[in-house]
Prior knowledge:
Elements: E1 5-8, H1 13-24, E2 29-32, H2 46-52, E3 56-59, H3 66-69, H4 73-93, E4 97-103, H5 126-141, E5 145-150, E6 153-154, H6 164-174, E7 177-181, E8 185-186, E9 189-190, H7 191-203, E10 208-211, E11 218-219, H8 220-230, E12 236-240, H9 260-264, H10 273-284
Parallel strand pairs: 1-2, 1-3, 3-4, 4-5, 5-10, 6-9, 7-12
Antiparallel strand pairs: 8-11
Helix pairs in contact: 1-7, 4-5, 8-10
Amino acid sequence: MKNKIIILGAKGQLGTALCNLCEKKNIYFKGFDFPKIDISIPETYQKKIIDYNPDILINCAAYTNVYKAENDLEKSMMVNGIAVKHLVDLCNDNNIYLCHISTSYVFDGLKKIPYIETDKPGPVNYYGITKYVGEQIIIDYSRSYSIVRTADLFGKSRNNSNNIIKKLIELAQRNRIVKLVNDEFTSPTFTDDLAKQILLIINNQITGIMHATSEGNCNWVEFGKYLFELLDMDVDIEEVESSYFNKTLKKPKFSMLENKVLKDHSINIMPHWKEALKEYINFYNK
Length: 286
């Protein structure tokens, strides 16, 4: 790849994976993240991006705390919604292809089979609403873009951001019994896999909305059991409903995505979530 890339949110889990992959493949790139830039303040990043003159901008920056978003309405909408318009304008003015990372939370979770790209969104919480607003801004105003929806990422990060695997291991080490949710189904996705898929999307110049998650799906009980099995940890799991942890926040119960567009273009390389988890454990936890 001869293109020059800017990665926003470069210290998060996906941003870290993308930076590592670009370094490995000798791709020209620059990564930016808070506090050097603030995506909600264009003045902190516009000159940096223009001076670098990239061909592609990958936006991994987002307000991702689903629980806090319900109360931090202004900040979450600024980062996930309004700030995206500034990025779109910058990309349009400088002929930059925008690859924006979105989420399965734009759907309501009522469908019992995986969502495809043409299914109608219907977010049920404020985080999902803000991400949907960001998507619509791109669709309405961007001249050259891809929106990559994904779900429940796990991977290493340069800013030590929340990692579900690390969290589960710490819970198991501290408690005799670990409570895990049995009524939320998703497709947990390894950021290293997603980073490879994103570069493949860019290389093939695929535009529009596409889904990119691990194949297969599970609830968090199934995920936890397989994780502890891989780690050879003897852990008692208590199955609970999602309302046990938060009785007010609505979350989609079935947020599985089907990578239909990637498969239609014959470029889907996402593995099954069990293979992805095994790869993560073999690479990072040995």
